Amino acid sequence: MTSTAREAVDTYLAAVRDHPDAARLRTLLARDDAWARDTPLHLTASALVVHPPSHRVLLRWHERMQRWLQLGGHADPGETDPWAIALREAREESGLDDLRPLPPGAPRVAQVVIVPVPARGDEPAHEHADIRYLMATDRPDDATPETASAPLRWVPVDVAAHDVEEDSVRTLVERARDALDAR
Protein backbone atom coordinates (compact mmCIF):
# COMPACT_ATOMS: atom_id res chain seq x y z
CA MET A 1 0.00 0.00 0.00
CA THR A 2 1.37 3.40 -0.88
CA SER A 3 1.68 5.96 1.83
CA THR A 4 -0.70 8.26 -0.08
CA ALA A 5 -3.88 6.33 0.78
CA ARG A 6 -2.62 5.43 4.23
CA GLU A 7 -1.72 9.06 4.99
CA ALA A 8 -5.06 10.34 3.63
CA VAL A 9 -7.07 7.90 5.72
CA ASP A 10 -4.88 8.27 8.83
CA THR A 11 -5.22 12.06 8.66
CA TYR A 12 -8.99 11.71 8.32
CA LEU A 13 -9.26 9.19 11.18
CA ALA A 14 -7.17 11.43 13.45
CA ALA A 15 -9.71 14.22 12.95
CA VAL A 16 -12.75 11.97 13.40
CA ARG A 17 -12.90 10.46 16.84
CA ASP A 18 -14.47 7.04 17.33
CA HIS A 19 -14.86 6.15 13.64
CA PRO A 20 -16.84 2.88 13.72
CA ASP A 21 -14.63 1.22 11.10
CA ALA A 22 -11.21 2.56 12.10
CA ALA A 23 -9.75 -0.86 12.93
CA ARG A 24 -11.01 -2.41 9.68
CA LEU A 25 -9.67 0.52 7.67
CA ARG A 26 -6.23 0.31 9.27
CA THR A 27 -6.11 -3.45 8.66
CA LEU A 28 -7.07 -2.89 5.02
CA LEU A 29 -4.44 -0.17 4.55
CA ALA A 30 -1.74 -2.51 5.87
CA ARG A 31 -2.39 -4.90 2.96
CA ASP A 32 -0.51 -4.70 -0.33
CA ASP A 33 -3.73 -5.46 -2.24
CA ALA A 34 -5.99 -2.83 -0.67
CA TRP A 35 -7.15 -1.58 -4.11
CA ALA A 36 -7.67 -5.11 -5.56
CA ARG A 37 -11.24 -5.51 -6.80
CA ASP A 38 -11.28 -9.27 -6.19
CA THR A 39 -11.04 -8.97 -2.41
CA PRO A 40 -14.15 -8.87 -0.17
CA LEU A 41 -13.17 -5.40 1.13
CA HIS A 42 -11.18 -3.01 -1.03
CA LEU A 43 -10.52 0.68 -1.47
CA THR A 44 -12.42 2.93 -3.85
CA ALA A 45 -12.34 6.71 -4.25
CA SER A 46 -15.15 9.12 -5.03
CA ALA A 47 -16.15 12.76 -5.13
CA LEU A 48 -19.19 14.89 -4.61
CA VAL A 49 -18.99 17.66 -7.21
CA VAL A 50 -20.32 21.06 -6.19
CA HIS A 51 -21.13 24.23 -8.14
CA PRO A 52 -20.42 26.86 -5.46
CA PRO A 53 -22.30 29.84 -7.00
CA SER A 54 -25.58 27.92 -7.22
CA HIS A 55 -25.07 25.72 -4.12
CA ARG A 56 -25.87 22.61 -6.15
CA VAL A 57 -24.32 19.15 -6.07
CA LEU A 58 -23.99 16.72 -8.95
CA LEU A 59 -25.53 13.28 -8.44
CA ARG A 60 -25.15 10.25 -10.70
CA TRP A 61 -27.62 7.40 -11.04
CA HIS A 62 -25.88 4.15 -10.07
CA GLU A 63 -27.78 1.36 -11.73
CA ARG A 64 -26.26 -1.38 -9.58
CA MET A 65 -27.14 0.41 -6.35
CA GLN A 66 -30.46 1.74 -7.73
CA ARG A 67 -29.96 5.20 -6.27
CA TRP A 68 -28.46 8.64 -6.78
CA LEU A 69 -24.89 8.82 -5.45
CA GLN A 70 -21.67 10.76 -5.84
CA LEU A 71 -19.20 10.10 -8.67
CA GLY A 72 -16.35 7.65 -8.28
CA GLY A 73 -15.16 4.09 -8.35
CA HIS A 74 -12.26 1.70 -8.53
CA ALA A 75 -8.57 2.27 -9.12
CA ASP A 76 -7.19 1.32 -12.50
CA PRO A 77 -4.14 -0.99 -12.50
CA GLY A 78 -1.14 0.81 -11.03
CA GLU A 79 -3.16 3.64 -9.46
CA THR A 80 -2.75 4.17 -5.72
CA ASP A 81 -3.41 7.88 -5.08
CA PRO A 82 -7.02 8.25 -3.85
CA TRP A 83 -7.30 11.92 -4.92
CA ALA A 84 -6.08 11.10 -8.45
CA ILE A 85 -8.49 8.16 -8.66
CA ALA A 86 -11.46 10.23 -7.46
CA LEU A 87 -10.52 13.02 -9.89
CA ARG A 88 -10.18 10.63 -12.84
CA GLU A 89 -13.47 8.93 -12.02
CA ALA A 90 -15.28 12.26 -11.58
CA ARG A 91 -13.95 13.51 -14.93
CA GLU A 92 -14.89 10.28 -16.70
CA GLU A 93 -18.38 10.13 -15.23
CA SER A 94 -19.22 13.83 -15.65
CA GLY A 95 -17.14 15.12 -18.56
CA LEU A 96 -16.09 18.06 -16.35
CA ASP A 97 -12.45 18.97 -16.85
CA ASP A 98 -12.16 21.92 -14.44
CA LEU A 99 -12.59 20.02 -11.16
CA ARG A 100 -10.62 21.23 -8.15
CA PRO A 101 -10.60 20.59 -4.40
CA LEU A 102 -13.27 22.13 -2.20
CA PRO A 103 -12.28 23.94 -0.08
CA PRO A 104 -9.49 25.36 -2.27
CA GLY A 105 -5.95 24.17 -1.65
CA ALA A 106 -4.59 20.69 -1.14
CA PRO A 107 -7.20 17.94 -1.45
CA ARG A 108 -8.61 16.88 1.92
CA VAL A 109 -10.55 13.72 2.56
CA ALA A 110 -14.15 14.65 3.36
CA GLN A 111 -15.25 11.19 4.46
CA VAL A 112 -14.16 7.56 4.63
CA VAL A 113 -16.88 4.93 4.86
CA ILE A 114 -17.30 1.22 4.32
CA VAL A 115 -20.34 0.51 2.16
CA PRO A 116 -21.92 -2.80 1.13
CA VAL A 117 -22.15 -3.61 -2.57
CA PRO A 118 -24.70 -6.23 -3.70
CA ALA A 119 -23.79 -9.24 -5.82
CA ARG A 120 -24.16 -8.94 -9.57
CA GLY A 121 -23.62 -11.66 -12.17
CA ASP A 122 -20.50 -13.61 -11.24
CA GLU A 123 -19.35 -10.95 -8.78
CA PRO A 124 -20.23 -11.74 -5.16
CA ALA A 125 -21.43 -9.18 -2.66
CA HIS A 126 -18.52 -7.24 -1.21
CA GLU A 127 -17.62 -3.96 0.49
CA HIS A 128 -15.97 -0.74 -0.61
CA ALA A 129 -13.85 1.31 1.76
CA ASP A 130 -14.61 4.56 -0.04
CA ILE A 131 -12.31 7.57 0.34
CA ARG A 132 -14.45 10.59 -0.50
CA TYR A 133 -13.58 14.14 -1.52
CA LEU A 134 -15.44 17.35 -2.32
CA MET A 135 -14.71 18.93 -5.71
CA ALA A 136 -15.87 22.16 -7.29
CA THR A 137 -16.60 23.14 -10.88
CA ASP A 138 -17.25 26.49 -12.51
CA ARG A 139 -18.98 24.96 -15.53
CA PRO A 140 -21.95 22.86 -14.40
CA ASP A 141 -23.62 23.06 -17.81
CA ASP A 142 -20.69 21.08 -19.27
CA ALA A 143 -21.61 18.00 -17.25
CA THR A 144 -22.30 15.09 -19.58
CA PRO A 145 -23.23 11.55 -18.52
CA GLU A 146 -20.66 8.87 -19.25
CA THR A 147 -23.44 6.57 -20.50
CA ALA A 148 -27.19 6.74 -21.04
CA SER A 149 -27.70 4.37 -18.10
CA ALA A 150 -25.85 6.72 -15.74
CA PRO A 151 -27.70 10.04 -15.95
CA LEU A 152 -26.56 13.06 -13.99
CA ARG A 153 -28.59 15.71 -12.21
CA TRP A 154 -27.75 18.92 -10.40
CA VAL A 155 -29.61 19.24 -7.11
CA PRO A 156 -29.65 22.13 -4.61
CA VAL A 157 -27.51 21.05 -1.68
CA ASP A 158 -30.37 21.47 0.82
CA VAL A 159 -32.67 19.31 -1.32
CA ALA A 160 -29.98 16.67 -1.84
CA ALA A 161 -29.42 16.48 1.93
CA HIS A 162 -33.03 15.30 2.27
CA ASP A 163 -33.39 13.29 -0.96
CA VAL A 164 -30.39 10.95 -0.95
CA GLU A 165 -31.14 7.53 0.51
CA GLU A 166 -27.74 6.58 1.88
CA ASP A 167 -26.96 7.99 5.33
CA SER A 168 -23.27 8.24 4.46
CA VAL A 169 -24.04 10.20 1.28
CA ARG A 170 -26.36 12.46 3.25
CA THR A 171 -23.45 13.18 5.59
CA LEU A 172 -21.21 13.91 2.59
CA VAL A 173 -23.81 16.33 1.20
CA GLU A 174 -24.02 18.04 4.60
CA ARG A 175 -20.22 18.42 4.58
CA ALA A 176 -20.48 20.01 1.14
CA ARG A 177 -23.10 22.42 2.49
CA ASP A 178 -20.78 23.28 5.41
CA ALA A 179 -17.89 23.89 2.99
CA LEU A 180 -20.07 26.17 0.90
CA ASP A 181 -21.34 28.06 3.95
CA ALA A 182 -17.75 28.60 5.11
CA ARG A 183 -16.82 30.39 1.86
**Could you name the CATH class?**
Alpha Beta
Structural class by helix and strand composition: alpha+beta
Biggest sheet character: 8 strands, mixed
Please state roughly what percent of the residues sit in beta strands, choosing from under 5%, 5-15%, 15-25%, 25-35%, 35-45% or over 45%. 25-35%
**Total helical elements:** 5
Mean pLDDT: 94
Instruction: Identify the CATH homologous superfamily.
Output: Nucleoside Triphosphate Pyrophosphohydrolase
Low-confidence stretches: none
Q: What does the radius of gyration come to?
A: 15 Å
CATH architecture: Alpha-Beta Complex
User: How do the SSEs run, as a string of H and E?
Assistant: HHEEEEHEEEEHH
Total count of strands = 8
**Looking at CATH, which topology would you report?**
Nucleoside Triphosphate Pyrophosphohydrolase
Shape: globular
How far apart the termini lie comes to: 35 Å
